[in-house]
Amino acid sequence: MYPQVEPYDQGMLDVGDGQLVHWEVSGNPDGKPACVFHGGPGSGLNTRWREDFDPDHWKLVLWSQRGCGKSTPPVRDPSTSMEHNTTQHLIDDAEKLREHLGIEKWLLIGGSWGSTLILAYAIAHPDRVSEIIIPAVTASRPEEFEWLTRGLGLFYPDYFDAFQEGVPEEDRDGNLALAYNKLLNSPDAATREKAAWDWSKWDLSTITGGDNEFEGTRYADPAVRYELARTVTHYWGNGAFLKPNYIFDNLDRLKGIPGVLIHGRNDFGGPLRTAWEVAKRWPDAELIILNDAGHVIMEGNSMDRAIAAAVEKFR
């Protein structure tokens, strides 16, 4: 692990549609470029990633996707429109950022939602990607969203009942993410706050493997709960704005790009099968299965160590 150095450059990139994307660059200005695609969607950049990259060697780019972190207009403001916030918009934003920074090719790293966005970007711009590292692999297929919003009820029946009861009865057998998104866009503040609470209780349990206590997590902040819930339901409810199986149908575009896929066998929110199937269709990727890991990266755990090793591999 390396020290968290401060960024030597940062700014707000105008990507159109009235959107300003916040970015930071740290490390060696002449180093090998790498870029973190954060998860969520909606979580914003996490400076913790700097600890995995030797600042004397790497030129590390962190950025916050539309509306989250320091990017504006903020999704946490219920008056902010989500019309221009889709996967294709985020792909285009990343490409504009690469061009703005004068980077020819960069290593991409990120997990969970970041995985889907990395794969979608690499499919669109394979000639701009040097290597890929993905902990917690997702591909945003319909069955993955179905698992996240219903299938996990097999393991968390108590949490699921509360989660389902958070939406009107007529919406409980349909698209739960869209039903919550409707509540999160209600003109009534109390309705929005309750929906953010109910959604976040479920969301946190899927990430941790059952622990949904907000204390000590980012979900303890009501503004963060709302920002995350509104963004996640917007994407999940609309199938990540991708055609079903889009990632799998286009993995051949990644031929020649070396990759490392890292996945915990105990990842309830993202079962191992997705990572397994991605690896089978992407021969240039190595799959590392961690028997003692779940979805969350924690300092010093096996997922953390595997990420550090993958970064060093592509040094």
TrEMBL record:
<keyword id="KW-0963">Cytoplasm</keyword>
<dbReference type="GO" id="GO:0005737">
    <property type="term" value="C:cytoplasm"/>
</dbReference>
<comment type="similarity">
    <text>Belongs to the peptidase S33 family.</text>
</comment>
<feature type="active site" description="Nucleophile">
    <location>
        <position position="112"/>
    </location>
</feature>
<dbReference type="InterPro" id="IPR000073">
    <property type="entry name" value="AB_hydrolase_1"/>
</dbReference>
<keyword id="KW-0031">Aminopeptidase</keyword>
<dbReference type="Pfam" id="PF00561">
    <property type="entry name" value="Abhydrolase_1"/>
</dbReference>
<dbReference type="InterPro" id="IPR005944">
    <property type="entry name" value="Pro_iminopeptidase"/>
</dbReference>
<keyword id="KW-0645">Protease</keyword>
<feature type="active site" description="Proton donor">
    <location>
        <position position="295"/>
    </location>
</feature>
<feature type="domain" description="AB hydrolase-1">
    <location>
        <begin position="35"/>
        <end position="299"/>
    </location>
</feature>
<dbReference type="GO" id="GO:0006508">
    <property type="term" value="P:proteolysis"/>
</dbReference>
<protein>
    <recommendedName>
        <fullName>Proline iminopeptidase</fullName>
        <ecNumber>3.4.11.5</ecNumber>
    </recommendedName>
</protein>
<dbReference type="InterPro" id="IPR029058">
    <property type="entry name" value="AB_hydrolase_fold"/>
</dbReference>
<keyword id="KW-0378">Hydrolase</keyword>
<feature type="active site">
    <location>
        <position position="267"/>
    </location>
</feature>
<dbReference type="GO" id="GO:0004177">
    <property type="term" value="F:aminopeptidase activity"/>
</dbReference>
<dbReference type="InterPro" id="IPR002410">
    <property type="entry name" value="Peptidase_S33"/>
</dbReference>
